[in-house]
Amino acid sequence: MAVEQSRAGNLPAARTTMVGRGSELAEIGRLFAGTARLVTLTGVGGVGKTRLALEAAAELQPRFRDGAWVVELSSLREGRSLPYAIAEALPLVDQSTRPMIDVLADYLAGRELLLVLDTCEHLVDACSLAAQALVEAAPGLRILATSRRRLEAGGEEVLTVEPLPVPEPGDPTASQADAVVLLRERAAPCLPGFKDTDAERAGLVGLARRLDGLPLAIELAAARLGELSVGELTERLDDRFAVLGETDAVVYEAEPPWHQAMRTAIGWSHELCTPAERLLWARLSVFAGTFDAEAARQVCADTHLAAEHVGGLLVALVEKSILVPQPTGGAERYRMLDTLREFGADWLRGLGEEAELRCRHRIHYRALALRGDTAWMGPDQAAWHERMVCEHANLRAALDFCLGEGEDAYTALELAGALWFYWLCCGVLREGRHYLDRALSLGPRSGAVRSKAVWACGAIALGQVDRAAAARLAGELRARAEEAADPAMLCAAAHLDGGLLTLTGRPAEAATVFDAVPYAEEHGGAYTGARFLVWALRVFVHTNLREFAEACAVADALRAACVGRGELWARAFADYVHGQAAYGLGRFAEAAAHARTALEGKALLHDSIGIATAVDLLASLAATAGQGERAARLLGMGQRTWADIGRPQLGIPELIAAREACERRARASAGDAAYEAAFRKGMRDSGDDVLTYALHQA
């Protein structure tokens, strides 16, 4: 395994220092330095498996050429979502129709990478199968998993994470025990006047021992030391132990059983909350991943919990270590540790509110998707993209609930269709297709909601170059549009029909289809995105027919319409096709300016197809200018993106021909050896390197 200073990955920055765990970290390092491919950290909830895994990953990261990547699984409800979650974390973009586990295997096969699968216990079977498939396919892959029970995968090494060491009675070094050090460090902000006397130290030692060295229990106790003394907290613990007694309860059939000290610490943390804080804690358990204050108000507030109080209650739960703030570029978001979410979910079931809160969660995210659908073709696309990325886990949870135990295929169809802009414009085609296919198979057979979902699924099928599915969906939508005589729906049908003709190298027929609908006219409705796509494809078809002057004119009109809306995504498409047309006319400086503008816009929205096509155009411009090595490096950058997408140049004959011509020119200019070296360098470049190099005006 290569040992170099890699910092690639998505490991979160540590919020606190690690206390203890030196022997465990050394053992993990030893296992991976040897023959171990899969190491699973097991132990009770709250023992610190996730914290240990992240610390180990940070230490091991420099050993892996392609970095260390963490996949947080607690928000997943279904094992079938696991491959998508791994791909999202890496991040891997693949638009094809191949099974995602096969795509992951191919992606990882040539990489040296550490993958952390965090919180596997509720998806043990899926995690076991995925881990085995991936390590078999990828010699340079190592997987570090956390789970309350082993994965039972072939070749798995299991390391049981025990509570932190606690001192024996009378131990003169008791105050230096890891559990006591952790308690003292975490309590320090709450105890500004703490006096390091024998009595105070003895109190901390006794409390740490009473908590059995469990890190989460210690963190919860430390958060209360601003309100209660060490002695008062210890008394509370003693009272709860007496009431609870022994328990055989387990979580996810975990081994070993749910630890009594953990149950006790969470229980008295719950008791020390106000009734409103307890109720919010329970209700927040319906969120997957992170959430913001507005979502908490919309989902959790009612006559028993006033909306205006939710913000203050969130702050209180952060202060009590029930919630962890998650910094983002926009509004602050929060998450709840999995162990505490389970407690809240159990309490919610006990209150008889689980079904109601899941329904509210579904309603909230349906409304969010509909707002995004309406707003997308306007000035806030970048903000909506970021919002959807943050809410991905909750959107997935809402869809899974509707398609599973919620038995609400209509809402699933409406939600999946409304999210067309996220699936199609932000590089999430494969997962969008997964949900749309399921919802269309289960949902209503008629109505406006189905028509919108049919278009969204067909648009994704075009992006995946799944011609059979695109043709089937286009036929259904065309029949619906003709029956309704709806101009907006007719534009959507033309997008699918004409897009399919464009994919198959029939530009003249595509032009006839596009010209039959009023794509340049504002007519409202549910298909504004489809209308702008038809407009952009009309420019593309002009270019394919070598009607370059007409292409420039239509592209200018499209761009002006986008600018008038403050819109970015279609505007970047307009810049790309204008760049193509200008290239055809020999106006190379103009073409380069439009290509760079297109690349900037598509990169902002993580539109991988848009990025790849813009980079290919810049490569053609470099080759035409005699810059063979620059063209080769750009082709390498584009090739890596196309490989991740799964279908180079989308299989479009004109784009394939342009790419082949570019390679011939670049090889002739640079020579084969220099071309190959530059191409390989481009294939190795990271996303940031691609943008910096491609946007540089050579």
Tell me what you see in this structure.
One of its GO terms (molecular function) is ADP binding. There is one protein chain. By secondary structure, this protein is mainly α. The protein folds into five domains: 22-160, Rossmann fold (3-Layer(aba) Sandwich), CATH 3.40.50; 174-268; 273-352, Arc Repressor Mutant, subunit A (Orthogonal Bundle); 445-545; 557-695. The protein has helices spanning 22-33, 49-60, 82-89, 100-109, 124-137, 178-187, 198-210, 215-223, 230-244, 260-272, 275-284, 293-300, 307-319, 338-351, 354-375, 381-403, 409-418, 420-425, 429-442, 448-463, 467-484, 487-503, 507-515, 528-544, 548-565, 569-584, 588-604, 608-624, 628-645, 653-670, 672-684, 687-695; strands at residues 38-42, 68-72, 113-118, 141-147, 156-160, 291-292, 323-326, 333-336. Strands 2-3-4-1-5 form a five-stranded parallel β-sheet, with helices on both faces. Strands 6-8-7 form a three-stranded antiparallel β-sheet. The longest helix is centred in the middle third of the chain and has 23 residues, at 381-403. The protein is globular. Residues 1-6 and 241-258 have low confidence and may be disordered.
